[in-house]
Design brief:
alpha+beta; single chain; 313 residues; elongated; 17 strands
Length: 313
């Protein structure tokens, strides 16, 4: 089946690799334009573009898909020439205009990293961890005008462990979801798949802002643990020490340390750093001071000097 793949970040690379290895013909890739990165702010291609170029596949990088714009109109012209039968999508990152939804016979088929209608939106993996879900998964569905509301072709499930960060979970889902996406393309080509309307109560996972990643030490320890893991590695859970913003790595839950700590109050021992919450303290394992790399929390604390009083806000 002739397909055009739409995707941008690293998790989408796995799906493109699987599609390239399948019986389907990837005739082009749609991805976001090159972005400035690093200290030099030089332009870098998206991970999907880099892979497509390695395989000699045509890459389309419109800044917008809106009709009436140069980029949008050029894309429509090229899609009409390429005549894809389906357009699989993984984390593309651009709104798809209504008139484009019918360009391919089987439509635009999105791989979403949740069990729809749970966690519709931009950050389903982070939302599932933060909410304490035991099970999540991935779904393939036909894109329509609503936010992740289209009928579902198939799902796979994935258990969430008590130590999973967003990166851990997303990595596993990228692989199982990629297999699901290929199977969905196979089923569409064979004519054996009929999408089913979503059922159940919808929940939503909006894009995460830096402000939303701030740690609230007045929350229970289990909630803080989930919050930090959900925002690791990006955008990174953070807290304030005086006026300095520090990113924190995952914490360890404790059974108690023999001393009551107020929320945000730190107790520094020879080999560990404990921080108070609304319930029991948590042990801080990793910390990233401003302008530095992530480091061992005990090493960071020793650098503060003896009798240092630390209270995170």
């Amino acid at each position: 089946m002739r397909i055009i793949f739409a995707g941008t970040p690293e998790p989408a690379v796995v799906a493109l690799e699987k599609l390239l290895a399948s019986s389907h013909e990837v005739v082009a890739v749609i991805t976001r334009p090159d972005a400035k990165k690093g200290r030099g702010r030089s332009l870098h291609p998206s991970p999907v573009k880099a892979l497509a170029q390695e395989h000699g596949i045509e890459v389309l990088t419109p800044t917008t898909l809106r009709p009436g714009t140069e980029d949008g109109d050029n894309l429509r012209e090229r899609l009409a020439e390429l005549q894809p039968e389906a357009i699989p999508v993984v984390a593309y990152g651009n709104l798809i205009s209504k008139d484009l939804l019918d360009v391919a016979r089987h439509g635009w088929v999105n791989l979403h990293f949740s069990l729809l209608p749970a966690w519709r939106g931009a950050a389903p993996v982070q939302a599932a961890i933060a909410a304490g879900d035991d099970i999540t998964g991935a779904s393939t569905f036909r894109i329509e005008e609503g936010l992740d509301t289209g009928p579902v072709f198939g799902t796979v499930t994935e258990a969430i462990t008590g130590t999973d960060t967003a990166d851990d979970l997303l990595t596993r889902l990228a692989y199982s979801g990629a297999d699901l996406l290929v199977a969905t393309m196979d089923g569409l080509e064979a004519g054996t798949l009929e999408p089913q309307a979503q059922s159940g109560e919808a929940t939503y996972a909006p894009k995460i802002s830096t402000a939303a990643a701030r740690i609230d030490w007045a929350q229970p320890a289990f909630s803080i643990d989930r919050h930090i893991r959900a925002h690791t590695p990006g955008p990174g859970a953070w807290t304030l020490l005086d006026d300095a913003r520090l990113k924190l790595g995952p914490v360890s839950l404790t059974e108690g340390i023999g001393k009551q700590l107020h929320p945000g109050e730190a107790l520094i021992s020879k080999d560990a750093v404990y921080i108070g919450t609304a319930t029991q303290p948590v042990q801080l394992d990793r910390i990233q001071p401003p302008g530095k790399k992530m480091m061992n929390a005990a090493d960071w604390a020793r650098g503060l000097g003896k009798n240092a009083e630390v209270r995170f806000q």
